[in-house]
Design a protein that fits this description.
The protein has helices at residues 13-20, 24-40, 43-68, 82-102, 104-116, 119-124, 129-135, 144-159, 166-192, 194-197, 201-212, 223-236, 241-251, 259-286, and strands at residues 73-74, 80-81. The protein is mainly alpha-helical and 292 residues long.
């Protein structure tokens, strides 16, 4: 009798290659499940991390509530009143919580992987190295701020003088993801520099200094020194568009002069992601493994 043919023998070579490729969605779900199981193994620590994160958010919210108890709006050019500014604050929490949950712990470990040579094992895996190093660990406790931001955003939208339209509601998540993409690009570039610098703790301090600019409305950057800073952190290092553009979509409809800024945000996101991927692969090319 003839031996039974192998199941894959009758498949075209292109089909076999496609079947051998990993499912990135399934991998991401596996990473998420494993991270959740690991955090639930120490539930007291998980709850403590959530409480600490929420405490910081509540202190900031309380600070702004005190400000608006003494004034109807903060005296910037466009006049951010209480509830539009709470939309801005909610957007800040959305972007930062997503970055901290999905990317911060992985970028923080990249320097250690390079220093110890354990990056070799990641390079041997049959999946995209940047995908693996960016998403293999998820810090679920950081998403406590995301849940709080949902409640704060809903409360703020109810009290807005003008309700956002359907287009704004649809575009808002897109621009939040654009903000996440820009901050991730900056983070992965700084983390990749560990190939040449060894340790990257000072680089993360630099990342926090830069992202601090994104936490405030761009209208505060005016005058002799403020205007050059606004131009720099809008068009060169586009951190000011991370929160300002999506927040404006809901706080009030983007006026005609702001739509070019919204289009620029989309282009800046694509450019940042492409540039950071090029830089990441350039860093990998310069990496010398532990066996070399």
């Amino acid at each position: 009798m003839k031996a039974a043919a192998q199941p894959d023998a009758k498949l075209p070579s292109a089909t076999r290659r496609e079947a051998s490729r990993p499912s990135y969605l399934r991998l991401f779900v596996a990473f998420a499940r494993y991270s959740l199981q690991r955090e639930m193994a120490f539930r007291a620590n998980f709850l403590l991390d959530c409480a600490a994160s929420l405490s910081w958010v509540l202190m900031n919210l309380g600070f702004y509530i005190l400000i608006f108890n003494n004034t109807s709006e903060i005296g910037w050019q466009t006049g951010w009143s209480k509830y539009p500014f709470f939309v801005f604050l909610s957007t800040t929490l959305f972007v930062n919580s997503l970055v901290q949950a999905f990317f911060m712990p992985n970028a923080d470990e990249l320097g250690e992987l390079i220093r110890t040579g354990n990056l070799d094992f990641a390079l041997l895996k049959p999946i995209d190295t940047q995908f693996l190093l960016s998403l293999r660990r998820i810090e679920w406790s950081s998403l406590a701020n995301f849940v709080f931001a949902l409640g704060l955003l809903g409360y703020s939208l109810v009290h807005l003088p003008t309700r956002p339209g359907l287009v704004a509601m649809v575009l808002y998540p897109l621009y939040v993801l654009c903000g996440v993409g820009i901050l991730y690009s900056l983070m992965i570039v700084l983390a990749s520099m560990s190939v040449w610098l060894g340790r990257n703790q000072s680089l993360y301090d630099f990342w926090f200094y830069l992202t601090t600019f994104s936490r405030y409305p761009m209208e505060i950057y005016t005058g002799r020194y403020g205007t050059p800073l606004r131009q720099l952190f809008t068009f060169v290092v586009p951190v000011l568009v991370v929160v300002n553009v999506p927040a404006r979509l809901l706080a009030w409809p983007l006026e005609a002069q702001y739509w070019p800024l919204a289009l620029f945000t989309l282009a800046a996101t694509l450019a940042c992601l492409a540039s950071s991927r090029w830089f990441f692969h350039r860093a990998l090319a310069a990496y010398r493994s532990a066996s070399s």
